[in-house]
């Protein structure tokens, strides 16, 4: 029998976001149109988050999230509330396969810092209703502000100065979440996917970096941001290839940057997409050089409702165990179900069937 995990990541885990209920979507639209107040919207959000947390508990998950129900975006909502950062209207949205997001972005207009961030209160509400379950909270990786943000040159004429302030802000953020009771924090990051394909390599060169330089910069941002985290706090990272209305942006395996991801990052766990052929094979896991890191295999797709064959998923877990001990492996969907408020193209019932499948397979494999 393999060891029971008590602090996360858990054998059956999930990335964090869930489909927004229709009532919540309507309420957010009413608030946008001035028909209800921010206070009235928050009451509805509270009620829907309570229902969501109850459902996660009922299905057997050890960690519960608020589903990112108070957010429109998985990253911009957090980043735009940092000191020195603003949300703004862009000329066009982020391009996925045949679809495009809303035309929003973030820009750095002043020195970056973390102070009085509203998501601390969001976490406190989740913590209050989690009960005996672990309250897990998700925020974007520090790399996302560099990767997706427009940084005004008169504010930060060089990358070093920017990353110094960004890292300091994240160190304060991590301590603030810890002080609020958080012991399981996840950094979500799509920036690493730029290394996975030839197209991505061209984008790196266009930014004036070599792949090695950029990988070192990303690694530094993560490791230094979490360097002061308390011993009893678990910090994981989800590496994503894009998730919007069941489409994605990037393809390719972890091979080109596996020595950094699996050999140099100091996070406690990695949530990894392995749900289809665009994610590559398990061979890069051979670069894992620590016994104290958990790898959460995202073998169940969150993009479509059709259920995977459980025996096939179990076989793939054991295939991954050829490179890393089974004790270091966990299972989850490959991404959240709603990285933006629009959500993926499946029903709430199909979403919960996916979570049941994760829990049932994990029980079979690790109990």
Automatic annotation (TrEMBL):
CDD domains: CIMS_C_terminal_like. The keyword rRNA processing does not apply. It comes from the Bacteria. Keywords: Methyltransferase, Transferase. Residues 14-342 form the Cobalamin-independent methionine synthase MetE C-terminal/archaeal domain. The keyword tRNA-binding does not apply. One of its GO terms (biological process) is methylation. It holds the Pfam family Meth_synt_2. SUPFAM superfamilies: UROD/MetE-like (SSF51726). GO terms for molecular function: 5-methyltetrahydropteroyltriglutamate-homocysteine S-methyltransferase activity; zinc ion binding. It is an enzyme of class 2 (transferase). Its EC number is 2.1.1.14. This is 5-methyltetrahydropteroyltriglutamate--homocysteine S-methyltransferase. It comes from Paenibacillus validus. The lineage of its organism: Bacteria, Bacillati, Bacillota, Bacilli, Bacillales.
């Amino acid at each position: 029998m393999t060891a029971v995990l008590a602090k996360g990541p858990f054998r059956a885990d999930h990335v964090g976001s869930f489909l927004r209920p229709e009532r919540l979507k309507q309420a957010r639209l009413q608030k946008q149109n001035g028909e209800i107040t921010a206070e009235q919207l928050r009451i509805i959000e509270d009620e829907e988050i309570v229902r969501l947390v109850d459902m996660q508990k009922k299905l057997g998950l050890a960690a519960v999230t608020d589903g990112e129900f108070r957010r429109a975006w998985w990253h911009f909502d957090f980043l735009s509330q940092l000191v020195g950062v603003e949300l703004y209207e862009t000329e066009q949205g982020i391009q996925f396969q045949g679809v495009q997001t809303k035309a929003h972005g973030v820009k750095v207009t002043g020195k970056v810092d973390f102070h009085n961030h509203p998501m601390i209160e969001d976490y406190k509400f989740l913590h209050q209703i989690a009960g005996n379950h672990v309250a897990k909270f998700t925020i974007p990786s520090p790399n996302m502000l560099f990767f997706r943000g427009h940084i005004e040159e008169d504010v930060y004429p060089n990358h070093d100065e920017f990353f110094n302030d960004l890292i300091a802000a994240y160190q304060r953020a991590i301590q603030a979440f810890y002080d609020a009771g958080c012991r399981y924090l996840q950094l979500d990051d799509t920036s690493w996917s730029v290394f996975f394909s030839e197209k991505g390599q061209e984008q790196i060169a266009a930014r004036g970096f070599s792949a090695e330089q950029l990988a070192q910069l990303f690694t530094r941002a993560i490791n230094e941001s979490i360097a002061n985290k308390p011993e009893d706090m678990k910090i994981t990272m989800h590496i994503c290839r894009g998730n919007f209305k069941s489409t994605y942006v990037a393809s390719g395996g972890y091979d080109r940057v596996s020595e950094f991801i699996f050999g140099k990052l100091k996070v406690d766990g990695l949530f990894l997409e392995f749900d289809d052929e665009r994610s590559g094979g398990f061979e890069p896991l051979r670069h894992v050089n620590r016994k104290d890191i958990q790898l959460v295999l995202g073998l169940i797709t969150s993009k479509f409702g059709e259920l995977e064959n459980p025996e096939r998923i179990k076989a793939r877990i054991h295939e991954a165990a050829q490179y890393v001990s089974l004790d270091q492996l966990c299972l989850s969907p490959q991404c959240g179900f709603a990285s933006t408020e629009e959500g993926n193209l499946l029903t709430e019932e199909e979403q919960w069937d996916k979570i049941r499948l994760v829990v049932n397979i994990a029980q079979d494999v690790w109990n």
